[in-house]
Write a structure and sequence with these properties.
By secondary structure, the chain is mostly helical. It is built from five helices and two strands; from the N terminus they run H-H-H-H-E-E-H. Among the domains are: 5-43; 103-172, no CATH class. The chain has helices spanning 5-16, 21-28, 33-42, 86-94, 150-156, and strands at residues 126-127, 136-137. The model is unreliable at 51-103 and 160-173 (pLDDT under 50). The chain binds a DNA duplex through helix 3.
DNA sequence: CCCTGATTCGC
DNA sequence: GCGAATCAGG
């Protein structure tokens, strides 16, 4: 497959919409994100409004001097939190994971999902007792292809992690 | 480790 | 022109 006019148009559109290169590659199919990035550059439309709608990059300060507002927060914030809940994720790493669906029913109301609200990008981790009133799905933003958010994905895939996550994009579809 | 875009360079 | 490999970064 090559860069037909149609594919280039779609690329421009999606790139303009702020989708990441990998997302666009997934949309187009049969190309890698590298191909997309390479094409984007050759087309000369690299720069764009920062912050993709979905994945990482909550912000990119790009400022030279520190505002030095007040004291730094206690959390070191080691790496860029690409998911949704930075401090939460850190807590997960530092503390032993609690029971999957019992203990931590601490999902923001606005994030919770029912079977109706679930989408491709909402965490399907069940919360509470299925069939009962308090049952709902996590609803967080999923970690790329996975059905769960970063938090629940860690829990879900903890015991058996030997299996390589199939990282290939769409070019084998 | 997950991800992001940027760049290089052989094809 | 193309894109894998690599680089730099959150």
């Amino acid at each position: 497959m090559s860069w037909t006019d149609e594919r280039v148009e779609l690329l421009k559109k999606l790139w303009g919409d702020g989708l990441s290169a990998s997302q666009i590659a997934g949309e187009l199919g049969e190309v890698t994100r590298n191909a997309v990035i390479g094409k984007v550059h050759r087309l000369g439309l690299s720069g764009r409004a920062k912050t993709a709608p979905t994945a990482a990059r909550p912000r990119k300060p790009m400022r030279e001097a520190e505002p030095r507002r007040d004291e730094r927060p206690q959390r070191p914030m080691t790496h860029g939190n690409t998911a949704l809940a930075p401090s939460l994720e850190q807590m997960v790493q530092e503390a032993p994971a609690p029971a999957p669906q019992s203990a931590d029913n601490v999902v923001p109301m606005g994030q919770r999902c029912t079977i109706m609200n679930l989408t491709e990008s909402t965490c399907r981790w069940p919360m509470g007792e299925p069939g009962t009133d308090g049952f709902y799905f996590c609803g967080g933003k999923t970690k790329q292809g996975l059905p769960y958010c970063a938090h629940h994905a860690r829990i879900a895939y903890q015991p058996v992690q030997d299996r390589r996550r199939d990282r290939r994009l769409a070019y084998l579809a």
